[in-house]
Amino acid sequence: MKITALSALVFASLAGGAIAQTADQDLIERGKYIATMGDCAACHTQPRGAGKPYAGGYAIASPLGTIWSTNITPSREYGIGTYTEQDFSDAVRKGVLKDGTHLYPAMPYDAYAGITDADMKALYAYFMHGVAPVDEPPAQVTELPFPFNLRFSMAAWNLLYAGGKPFTPDAGLNAQENRGKYIVDTLGHCASCHSPRGLLMGSVSGQYLRGGSVGPWYAPDITGDPVHGIGSWANEEIATYLKTGRVAGKAQAAGPMAEAVEHSFQHMADDDLGAIAAYLKTVNAPATASTPSVASRTDMGQPVDVEPGIRGLFPENAHDSLKTGAELYSGYCASCHQPNGAGSRNQAYPSLFHNSVTGAASATNLIATILYGVDREAGGDHVLMPHFNTGSYVAVLTDQEIADISNFVMETYGNPNAAKVTTADVQVVRDGGPVPFLAKVQPHIPALMATGGVAAVVVLAGVILLVRRRRIA
Amino acid sequence: MPSPTYDSPPLSVTTRRTVLVWSASVLALFAGGGASFAQTPAANAELQSFLELSRLLTGYDDLNEAIAQRILETLVTDDPANAEKYRQLAGLSATASDANALRDAARTAGLGDAVTDIVSAWYTGTIAGKQKTTVIAYNDALMYRPVEDGLIVPTYCDKGPMWWRDTLPPGVTRMPVNVPKVL
Amino acid sequence: MKSPVFNNGDVVADVCVVGSGVVGALTAEHLAGEGYSVIMLDAGLRITRAQAVENWRNMPFANRVGSDYQGLYPQSPMAPAPLYWPKNNYVGLSGPDADGFQQGYLKTVGGTTWHWAASSWRHLPVDLKMHSVYGVGRDWPISYDELEPFYCLAEEKMGVAGPNDPALQSPPERSRPYPMDMVPWSYGDKRMAEVVNPHGWNLVPIPQGRSTQPWNGRPTCCGNNNCQPICPIGAMYNGIHSVEAAEALGAVTLAESVVYRLDTDENNRITAAHFYDAQHVSHRVEAKAFVIACNALETPRLLLAAANERNPNGIANSTDQVGRYMMDHSGFHAYFTAKEPLWLGRGPAQSSCMVGPRDGAFRSEYSATKVILYNITAAHKAASAAIKDGFVGKDLDAEIRRRTINGVDLSISLEPLPDPNNRVTLSKTRLDPHGIPCPEVYYDVGDYVRKGYQASVEQLRGLADLFEADDFHATTSLNANNHIMGGAIMGNDPRNSVTNGNCRAHDHANLWLPGGAPMPSASVVNSTLTMAALGLKAAFDIAATLKA
């Protein structure tokens, strides 16, 4: 990102004393790093070279309609080129634009509210001087239906859920853990996905980082709980996961987490990744270090050879003979994941036992992986597991086939006590995930409004939009 | 393009020594005509004897019992006279020091074909019987084992994407100099 | 997006494509993308990838050793395709090289590229001028330069990985780089190149329709060594990918739909195609343009079988050229055991090929050859031989290992010349279950190929010497390579050709016959990419014609 002399000059004349004419290069670099930590590009840049950096135009699905990210380059006409640092800070921390417009909380300003003043200054410097202005609007503009287009309603929502203050260290944590907490709670906005949402989609008390739905995926418990969380992981393993998107014999990132690794975590300093790991391990950590009696979700299952039970049962020219989960698994999955579920020797194709996906209490992420595949670039390695949804290069699987494969894999290689998958479960994941309460009641909103519940409705609307970002296929 | 590097696998697991949770269901599945084999102490002794014979002829100690069951049933169903031949082979094996000695003794006793049938079943996974051809094993057929350190079993890729790139096969110490140069 | 209209089983569409293999499907995809409603009719079943994978694993050992790539694909009982374990004699063969023309092709939605090995070669520019340069065979009515853009497009559609160093390209005349870089060589390919290339063999990378990186949702090749008869993971291009791409654009595919009659009007334009469904009920497709892309054996069979009152000798056959000039790259195998282990079998089915003898002045005298380093693991063949030899125990393992890692299997293709006497005709006695005559083929490879065989065997003996082999042997009977060409050959003169340079029939202004059938020269390389390029060239001509 070069700053041309001209743009710096133009900016200086407009922004007056908001910032020194020549921003300190170190400050810009630091701001760039903070923008990476905050993963601003995930929403404000179209993926894989489809658009210019921070020019917006990325679609974020919400149950109430598509939210299109905006141009946050220093373009005066289409971006934030006329913003003072205070304007910038209000947008990032409070979700209020310079012209008074309220942002939808797809922008995680509730988390960003905790950004320190020093970091905010650097972030501002980067967006003003480190990002090339793009003098064009995004191709699409957000237009949610009435009454959700009443953006002032977000002010009411903010009263309930946003409006936090800059981060202050927790006296109970050491310096490294506090650094980790700052990243997790503000820039990393981990809780946006990894904390469950209640009826009104606010955080559930006591369930901080205990896991939550993200579109078709489930963002699992990432607390230090040794059974349900990642307490059994070494700190180095957590850092490796964030850096590479995978830890052999434990887990691999897919869906939104693959994007987070690709755009954000892999670029973070090792110290910061270590700090995240150290902090996460303190959350819900057991009072005393003892080996739990129950296997964690990353330690479930064992190798089982599927071949002896199915080989030679049908003639070599059979048509339409693959009916059971084992037969379908053998035909569609075993080429890579192997007939015993162990994956490839180098674990480029991961083992299906000792895997957080199959060891989970629910098959949601297994179903989502089958339907959406894995597509992740990290550390110079592009991992692609093909999907089996419409348009698949391998094969398009039906809901029944996916249910049968999922049940076979969970029972054979993973958590045998996981809830059984039905075709309805597959359909839910295919349709983009569970529909929140608010969207379910949406058809009744006119009636609600007629009875005077306007304020309630607009609050609800804000909640529903809360950071459930999900890429539109 | 850099080669991907990966960690060690979580467990030292090979296809050959997997937990055979399925054996029970397999036995149930093929219980039909040969039910007697597994369900009585005598039948079990017969199976153990056949396994012992198979271990000697193949040189492998970790033969899959469910596959042994299917092989034995299929061969005996195809030709009931085979049961007696295998009892005779078992008798010969008591004094045979190794596979070659047993094969030679079997040939002398007119049981050479019976040896070939057993070896062929284990190595190819197919029994081309007098009456019909039966497929019992694919990945577990022993023929792939002698080269499993450098090759894969076709259709199963246990080495990951592009595994053959830039890697030397076992026992080879020098990557050739290419003329012309290629990747 | 426009789709065909259905009415009681009858169909009205802009374009009717008969055959849903790589050629028909790519043609359909292009035309659907141009906004036309397209119906694809395929005689065979629609199968799933996993079914083919499991069928192969469930196939008897002997069939696998014998490379039975036909038997695992289930067939519609109403539309037989060739089978050889045992032979079903669906195609009647006669002539001196009848046994060398036992083709393996599928009648299945997606076509025979279900079990191809993804070699995606181009003809050399000179291959299109055989008569004017070497005084043998025929010239094409189009030049390489006219075909070249369609080669590029076909490579893009099929996701071809090839060498981008011109020194490794055959031919290097290209206007665009390969969509993906070449499939990397294994140790065996590299060692072979190191030994043989100083002797002029020119072992080069085979351009392959296979992913060497994630490509448009297609996974990276994992070298599971099973390209033939089925890629288990979809890393290799199959015609079914283009079928699905066409369907995503509105095209509709009907499986088990066998076309048997074509109606013509007073201008001899095709007005309708009639087909039988699986219950032998007849239906009718009306369209503005018709494409017959059933492969070079079934296309002439259909044209001949669909004779009507205005075209009593068959469709497009006013000058008795339909069914003539049948070609295939008749081939043979050469085997030897190298003194050193080469470890062939690492990676996909084939990655390198000797193109040294692909061209030269000798082509005025005898056939060109290309020599593929066969790379499917030989463990099964080694086991078969070692068990037969009586090995047991540890010795058996050692023998399997020796044969597998030291063995070399070279697959050699020979270049035929177009001969009007090599032809497809209709059987007078044998009918398929719908009552349509089965095909008969007379085949004689001719002295040009026989001389080429002799020359090649001598050259290969020298190659085996480079590896200190003492057991060199070459097969003496020629085998088919399933590269079926001819039968509706293209040319400028309707008296000795069936189509023009756009694969359009001389006799019918709205009938195209793209694929292997119109190819007037075979070159010595696999025909699929050229067939695909001709399909796309025809598709552009169809679009231009429909717009006019």
UniProtKB/TrEMBL annotation, chain A:
Residues 26-131, 175-284, 320-413 form the Cytochrome c domain. Its main location: membrane. Keywords: Cell membrane, Heme, Iron, Membrane, Metal-binding, Repeat, Signal, Transmembrane, Transmembrane helix. Heme c 1 binds at C40, C43, H44. Gene3D superfamilies: Cytochrome c-like domain. GO terms for cellular component: plasma membrane. It holds the Pfam family Cytochrom_C. The chain crosses the membrane at residues 445-467. This is Cytochrome c. It comes from Paenirhodobacter populi.
UniProtKB/TrEMBL annotation, chain B:
InterPro entries: FAD-SLDH_ssu, TAT_signal. This is Dehydrogenase. It comes from Paenirhodobacter populi.
UniProtKB/TrEMBL annotation, chain C:
Its cofactor is FAD. InterPro entries: FAD-dep_OxRdtase (IPR006076), FAD/NAD-bd_sf (IPR036188), GMC_OxRtase_C (IPR007867), P2Ox-like (IPR051473). One of its GO terms (molecular function) is oxidoreductase activity, acting on CH-OH group of donors. It comes from the Bacteria. Transmembrane segments: none annotated. It holds the Pfam family DAO. Residues 14-49 form the FAD dependent oxidoreductase domain. Keywords: FAD, Flavoprotein, Oxidoreductase. SUPFAM superfamilies: FAD-linked reductases, C-terminal domain, FAD/NAD(P)-binding domain. Residues 418-535 form the Glucose-methanol-choline oxidoreductase C-terminal domain. Belongs to the GMC oxidoreductase family. This is GMC family oxidoreductase. It comes from Paenirhodobacter populi.
